[in-house]
């Protein structure tokens, strides 16, 4: 998605307008009496039940808990039924299986497949089903749940492998034990650095740990599989290849390695053509084709240390109507984004992986939606608006929209929704964003709300809608 939008639309104040520029504000139609009469209904349940159900017991955490609990049950069953040596092999197999699942849910084609399956549900299906299918973007719970389970399983295997070496010796068991402890250390570096509060505070370090510790683990996993197969072949009096191809670990690690290579094999250095919109935002244009609406792209100027995800917007020639590449909107939200804004010259950036579906792709599940954006959050929404797959109403809260993002962006919003509420926070103050969103839901009879904003505003709108029975979806910031 686009870089983190500005955080202005938090404090509830101001009145509703339907405007593009300060000059147009004077010409804006007055709000109808019907709109002014709309009031927020009471939230459902008590403070305790609302907080637990809509904040703490998120779909992401439910998926994580389900995967980890299922692994815990399997571990207990194996502890009761297995001896030490079979349990060691079972633990290694379980660790490999969980690692494969963990990596699959970071592989672009597999994730896109999950999205495609979810949005196959027709609009004739009950909303209760479609609103749950739209939560497919919580797939990060599978990634983190399987990853933590893999670390625990591998710790169990390593302890048992150490015990086997102490009891029986053998040079292969020694090497296997050393490699196993290296993998355990790498796994726990990844898990600890990925803890949400640590990840947010030291994001660049998190990316470096995740990447290099992951690659180290993968290499050690291969060496471990070869050594383990050698030990098994020694016990069976069979060659290494015989034991290797009969090991589930070997096939699991083949899938895991293929997923990793597939992503990095698409590493390309692409020319970008910046269009500086203001000192707060820029638009980076890519001239190559093949990028459809609803997809995101990872870009970087330091491919081994950091990557930044942005939603793509098709670049349409106003005269011919032909698509000439695509672009991403970047706003000032850190060192990388500031560097892109301050450098308006043609240059090259790295692009990696296949185009990836994002949150807004699930909007196809609904007949009518309301899209809420703050600041540069309008960038991902432009892709949705261009696709025209779902009727929508728009609420965009930002400072000086035309000055900051340019008339092209503003006009694109107005084309998608001629009655779009473009809220200039510089002249009108901050909106009561939950109330304004609710008004658009009632006016348009929308089935769901999608918001692209910073974590605080996203949580505010999603919580405010869900506690009033309206499906609402925002980005996951701890996945």
UniProtKB/TrEMBL annotation:
<dbReference type="InterPro" id="IPR039261">
    <property type="entry name" value="FNR_nucleotide-bd"/>
</dbReference>
<dbReference type="InterPro" id="IPR052979">
    <property type="entry name" value="Adenylate-forming_domain"/>
</dbReference>
<feature type="transmembrane region" description="Helical">
    <location>
        <begin position="177"/>
        <end position="196"/>
    </location>
</feature>
<keyword id="KW-1133">Transmembrane helix</keyword>
<keyword id="KW-0472">Membrane</keyword>
<feature type="transmembrane region" description="Helical">
    <location>
        <begin position="63"/>
        <end position="80"/>
    </location>
</feature>
<protein>
    <recommendedName>
        <fullName>Non-ribosomal peptide synthetase</fullName>
    </recommendedName>
</protein>
<keyword id="KW-0812">Transmembrane</keyword>
<feature type="transmembrane region" description="Helical">
    <location>
        <begin position="208"/>
        <end position="229"/>
    </location>
</feature>
<feature type="transmembrane region" description="Helical">
    <location>
        <begin position="136"/>
        <end position="157"/>
    </location>
</feature>
<feature type="region of interest" description="Disordered">
    <location>
        <begin position="1"/>
        <end position="44"/>
    </location>
</feature>
<feature type="compositionally biased region" description="Polar residues">
    <location>
        <begin position="1"/>
        <end position="32"/>
    </location>
</feature>
<feature type="transmembrane region" description="Helical">
    <location>
        <begin position="249"/>
        <end position="267"/>
    </location>
</feature>
